[in-house]
Write a structure and sequence with these properties.
CATH architecture: 3-Layer(aba) Sandwich
Strand content: 15-25%
Radius of gyration: 18 Å
CATH topology: Rossmann fold
CATH class: Alpha Beta
Distance between the termini: 14 Å
Number of domains: 1
Oligomer: single chain
Shape: globular
CATH superfamily: Alpha/Beta hydrolase fold, catalytic domain
Structural class: alpha/beta
């Protein structure tokens, strides 16, 4: 039986179109000789959070139960997603750990994933705040729109006013600039402490849910996750989310294959195959994806 990669593309937040992800999925299927299933989940804002996460979870459960009818070995399923799709992919992996009635996921591939909404003042947020397709302010505004919140709260969330000190202390062991390797902190300037605003915190409760911020999952969950490929890009506000998750997985003895694209930026994979408009870094990411799939 062939292996399967379930690719969770990210229509709801990403600037790329569904057509661009179909092209990417076709290339992955051809180059890795695997079956690729793209989950067409319902979109925000018409469908409220967490509809998107639940659609991905339910689609994956259904396929795991019926994989053999498609000629797929249900024990060789890999979940993959880029950006917010990485959130859904690893969130699905975490949720499936609760199920003993279906085959275990073989591996997960997370391409410049969004993994937490607690701290928007990490080194990569500062370094790439105005870089490429996804600026820091635009990203937070997208998050607020996704959750149907007022974008006027963007500055408060960027400053960290939505997080009480008790929560910062609790999760400091997992989310903090000190956990980022020194070579990624050049010119980083720690921000001044933000004033906590209880009213903002109350409006942002979804941000602290595990399915929205998978990096907040307990070690008992993280330590049971499958082999993981994490792809980060140097010029990306989300770079450090990937670095922090890599550390958490490794600290919990999960096998991690890490690929860092020095000339990459957020969303670069969408430009794959566009001739003169393509970027070498997109091809590098594709090569890493295919290599990891073949190794599983």
């Amino acid at each position: 039986m062939v292996s399967l990669q379930v690719f969770k593309d990210i229509h709801s937040i990403h600037v790329c179109s569904s057509g661009s992800h179909e092209r990417i999925c076709r290339q992955i299927a051809k180059k890795s000789d695997s079956v690729v299933v793209s989950v067409g989940y319902r979109l925000s804002p018409e469908h409220r959070y967490p509809t998107q996460s639940l659609d991905c979870l339910n689609a994956t459960i259904h396929f795991l139960k019926t994989a053999e009818s498609y000629g797929v070995d249900p024990h060789r399923v890999i979940l993959c997603g880029d950006s917010a799709g990485g959130t859904y992919a690893t969130g699905t992996c975490q949720e499936l750990l609760k199920r003993a009635d279906i085959p275990k996921i073989r591996a997960q591939i997370l391409i410049y994933p969004f993994l937490q909404a607690m701290n928007f003042n990490l080194p990569s947020h500062q370094k790439s705040a105005s870089v490429g397709l996804l600026s820091l302010e635009r990203m937070v505004c997208f998050i607020l729109m996704y959750l149907r919140k007022d974008c006027s709260l963007t500055k408060a969330v960027l400053a960290g006013s939505h997080v009480p000190e008790s929560m910062n202390l609790k999760y400091r062991k997992w989310i903090h600039p000190d956990l980022i390797p020194e070579k990624f902190k050049r010119d980083y300037k720690p921000p001044l402490p933000a004033s906590y605003i209880p009213q903002v915190h109350e409006k942002m409760q979804e941000m602290f849910e595990i399915r929205f911020s998978p990096l907040l999952a307990e070690d008992a969950v993280v330590g049971r996750l499958p082999d993981t490929c994490i792809i980060t890009c140097e010029h990306d506000v989300l770079r450090d989310d990937g670095l922090l998750y890599k550390k958490r997985l490794e600290d919990n003895n999960v096998k991690v294959t890490w690929c860092h694209i020095e000339d990459g930026f957020h969303g670069v994979l969408c430009f794959l195959g566009y001739g003169i408009f393509s970027f070498p870094s997109a091809s590098k990411i594709m090569d890493h994806i295919v290599s990891f799939i073949k190794s599983c």
